[in-house]
Design goal:
about 200 residues, Porin, two-stranded antiparallel ribbon, 1 helix, about 10% helix, elongated
Length: about 200
């Protein structure tokens, strides 16, 4: 009787093991798809001309092309802004841009951009001219410039609230300046907000 009971238990265990092996196993996906963000976004930042002259800028971006999960994207957009160079000049600019952005599934972001636009400079105080040997006031003269150059930046995308804090640094050429070009170091620190 004991032998028959042991044999029955062994058969039952073997049949259960066989059934367990026959059942298909659920395979977890390697990566979970991320919810896409809007193609449109706006941004605001502190703008630093020559890294020491304070200003501000706002911008709009459109994600023209992107791969799955937005890892690689082609971005077009434009920024408008201003800065103050104390006792020297005040500048206002419009800067269209095109750029490439890399964003990892974890949220880290890196980008490179090319900017090409217009800068209007206005002297911070009244200027003077000599006319027929006399010094006369000529107002606060303004000077138009082409404003072109590259930039690079990093950021971190917080998808839950659609906000990406970022920092950028770049070089902008002002031209012509008395038939020459001036290289200006610029930086921006701010945040981008994607539309819902």
């Amino acid at each position: 009787m004991k032998t028959e009971a042991i044999a029955a238990i062994a058969v039952a265990v073997a049949s259960q093991a066989s059934a367990a092996r026959a059942q298909p196993r659920a395979v977890a996906p390697a990566t979970e798809a991320l919810a896409p963000t809007s193609r449109h976004s706006i941004e605001a930042s502190v703008y630093l001309h020559q890294l020491v002259h304070p200003g501000a800028q706002v911008g709009y971006s459109y994600r023209l092309l992107s791969t799955a999960n937005e890892v690689h994207s082609l971005i077009i957009g434009a920024d408008v802004g201003t800065y103050v160079w104390l006792r020297h000049s005040i500048g206002a600019f419009v800067l269209p841009r095109v750029g490439y952005r890399l964003r990892t599934p974890g949220g880290f972001q890196a980008e490179v951009n090319v900017h090409a636009g217009y800068l209007q400079g206005v002297l911070a105080s009244e200027s003077y001219d000599v006319v027929d040997g006399a010094v006369v006031a000529s107002g606060r003269a303004g000077y138009p410039y082409a404003y072109v150059g590259p930039s690079a930046g990093v950021g971190y995308s917080i998808r839950a609230i659609r906000v990406t804090p970022f920092a950028r640094i770049g070089v902008q050429w002002q031209l012509p300046v008395f038939d020459q070009s001036l290289m200006r170091l610029v930086a921006a620190v701010g945040a981008e907000v994607a539309f819902r």
